[in-house]
């Protein structure tokens, strides 16, 4: 008969074996930790962190040459690309590697003693006051603001290998300057840099170089994380520079950023294109529809020219998002300025075309009245008195006998063809020949576009009242009041950027009398 063995008796040897193995593992682990503590104490004994280690160049018998510092960057995020302040924010892990023979502990290893491949040197939150080993005094040349990450512990790693090579890794968040060239905005590409160098040590003491493989690594999804830019390429360069205090080794990371165009296509180009097309509706309206044609022309023109306070030309109605309000005031002409300026010119031309049509219509009516007053004595003009014109012109004149109608018909063809030619030239220059630059006077062009041209257009628009019929009271009054109020709004926007002074500045002093003269001329009519 089989004798049953108790469960406790069966598990007893197994539990004893597990306890023995656990005890051995904990003992080995305790010895390893003790060995790390001993290594750190021994290598830091009589170590002076203020003295630079010797280089590895045998041709320099005294100092060993400069310390070779190998750099690697792991980009985590790029954000807040600010066009106004010309800066951007970046978070990355910054790694440096160099050799300090004084910290090599491979000599402690023998047959009876085993050392780990590396030891980790702990750091405190205030690393400057607890520095234990020599480290390169690296700084970022184009840095505006910087901070280290201390949650939950300082994000710093100092790893010392047994051959004396040191790995220093730290996570940083920086705000870096990025000078931008906005000639091709919003079809532009920007090169944002990360420049690093030694602050005190010259090239005779420290020499930086990029890591041979993957000097700049990117976090997965980094290229898709930028809302308004596309990260096209990352290039590593050297930027060693000379100053009055010596020559300093420098490394440069150049990030090529291309601005996303779809946003500006929807918010800027399509609405402005529509405004130009809407202004051409006036060519199909009857010449006697004075209020409708004046309202259409003035509304589209003011929509393009109204300025927002303290900013560039932006759209008040359809384009209220303020595209140019996100840019700094620069003295050169941007691609966006060319587009808005030409659209403004076409809308302005449509308004002037109506003034010419109105003037021609009144001349036609005056000529018809004179013809009716002539005596009907059977007079016929001589055949030779007719001007010699082409067959097409004669057909055109016979079909449209009124000069005002001819102007409208010609405008229906000339304006669209001219605008189409401009579009072909514009997109060819700024998309295909993106390197073409305009030579402009830096001090004057910004004010020419933002101040003088709008003021000239407002004054000329106020003169349209002189071609309107004296009985068109609503149209003439609306035109005068609108231009005067627009000029006042524009003046407040320009002057808001300037300090309060006791004298009158020239542009506004010359413009206001021109606008008020239009009111005086109309008010003086019987």
UniProtKB/TrEMBL annotation:
Q: Give the transmembrane region(s).
A: 6-25, 261-285, 338-361, 409-432, 444-468
Which SUPFAM superfamilies does this one have? Neurotransmitter-gated ion-channel transmembrane pore, Nicotinic receptor ligand binding domain-like
CC terms in the record's Gene Ontology section: plasma membrane
**Top-level division of the source organism's lineage:** Eukaryota
Pfam families, alphabetized? Neur_chan_LBD, Neur_chan_memb
Q: Does the keyword Cell cycle apply?
A: no
What protein family does this chain belong to?
A: Belongs to the ligand-gated ion channel (TC 1.A.9) family.
In its UniProt entry, what is this protein called? Ig-like domain-containing protein
């Amino acid at each position: 008969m089989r004798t049953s063995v108790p469960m406790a008796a069966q598990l007893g040897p197994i539990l004893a074996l597990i306890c023995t193995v656990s005890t051995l593992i904990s003992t080995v682990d305790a010895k390893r930790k003790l060995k790390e503590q001993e290594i750190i104490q021994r290598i830091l004994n009589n170590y002076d962190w203020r003295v630079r280690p010797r280089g590895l160049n045998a041709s320099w018998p005294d100092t060993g040459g400069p310390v070779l510092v190998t750099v690697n960057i792991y980009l985590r995020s790029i954000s807040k690309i600010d066009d106004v302040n010309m800066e951007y924010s970046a978070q990355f892990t910054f790694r440096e590697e160099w050799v300090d023979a004084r910290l090599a502990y491979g000599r402690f290893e023998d047959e009876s003693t085993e050392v780990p491949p590396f030891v980790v040197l702990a750091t405190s939150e205030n690393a400057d006051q607890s520095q234990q080993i020599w480290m390169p005094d690296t700084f970022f040349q184009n840095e505006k603001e910087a901070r280290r990450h201390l949650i939950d512990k300082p994000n710093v790693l100092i790893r010392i290998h047994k051959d004396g090579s040191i790995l220093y890794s730290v996570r940083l968040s920086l705000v870096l300057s990025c000078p931008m060239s906005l000639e091709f905005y919003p079809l532009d590409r920007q090169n944002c840099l990360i420049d690093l160098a030694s602050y005190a040590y010259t090239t005779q003491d420290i020499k930086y170089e990029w890591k041979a493989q993957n000097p700049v690594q990117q976090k997965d999804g980094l290229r898709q994380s930028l809302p308004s830019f596309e990260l096209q390429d990352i290039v590593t360069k050297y930027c060693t520079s000379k100053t009055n205090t010596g020559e300093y080794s420098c490394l440069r990371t150049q990030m090529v950023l291309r601005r996303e165009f779809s946003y500006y296509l929807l918010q800027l180009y399509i609405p402005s294109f529509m405004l130009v097309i809407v202004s051409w509706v006036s060519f199909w309206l009857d010449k006697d529809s004075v209020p409708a044609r004046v309202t259409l022309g003035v509304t589209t023109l003011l929509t393009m020219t109204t300025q927002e306070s303290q900013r560039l030309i932006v759209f008040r109605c359809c384009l209220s998002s303020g595209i140019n309000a996100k840019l700094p005031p620069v003295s050169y002409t941007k691609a966006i300025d060319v587009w808005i300026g030409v659209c403004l010119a076409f809308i302005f031309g449509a308004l002037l075309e109506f003034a010419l049509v109105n003037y021609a219509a009144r001349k036609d009516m005056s000529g018809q009245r004179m013809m009716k007053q002539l005596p009907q004595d059977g007079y016929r003009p001589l055949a030779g008195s007719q001007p010699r014109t082409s067959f097409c012109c004669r057909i055109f004149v016979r079909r449209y006998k009124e000069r005002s109608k001819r102007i409208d018909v010609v405008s229906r063809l000339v304006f669209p063809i001219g605008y189409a030619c401009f579009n072909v030239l514009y997109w060819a220059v700024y998309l295909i020949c993106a390197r073409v630059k305009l030579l402009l006077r830096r001090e004057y062009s910004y004010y020419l576009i933002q101040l003088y041209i709008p003021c000239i257009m407002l004054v000329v628009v106020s003169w349209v009242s002189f071609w309107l019929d004296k009985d068109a009271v609503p149209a003439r009054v609306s035109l005068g009041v609108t231009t005067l109020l627009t000029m006042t709004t524009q003046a407040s926007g320009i002057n808001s950027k300037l300090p309060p002074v006791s004298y009158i500045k020239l542009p506004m002093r010359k413009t206001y009398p021109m606008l008020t003269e239009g009111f005086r001329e109309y008010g003086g009519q019987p």
